Amino acid sequence: MTIQEIQQLEDFFTQAGKQQVPIYLNQATVITDYEHFLESHFTPLKLNPDAKVNQPLIHRLKMLKLLIESNG
To answer: Where are the domains of the chain?
Structure first.
C-alpha cells in the first residue's frame, strides 16, 4: 500500500466522523475505542507501509471502511 493510499483511507475516516461503538468487524474483532483503533492501525502503516506484517492492519481498515459505507 502506498503512502497516498494510506492517506486516502485516513481521509475517508476523518470525513466519516466518529462512529458508535462497539463495532463488530467479525466474530473475533470488536472495536470498543474507535480513535485508538484508527491510531493503532495508521501509525505503523505510515512508518513502514510495505511491511508484510502490516497486511492485517490494512485488511481491518478496509473492512471497517466497507462497514461504514454500507451503513451510511
So the answer is: 3-70
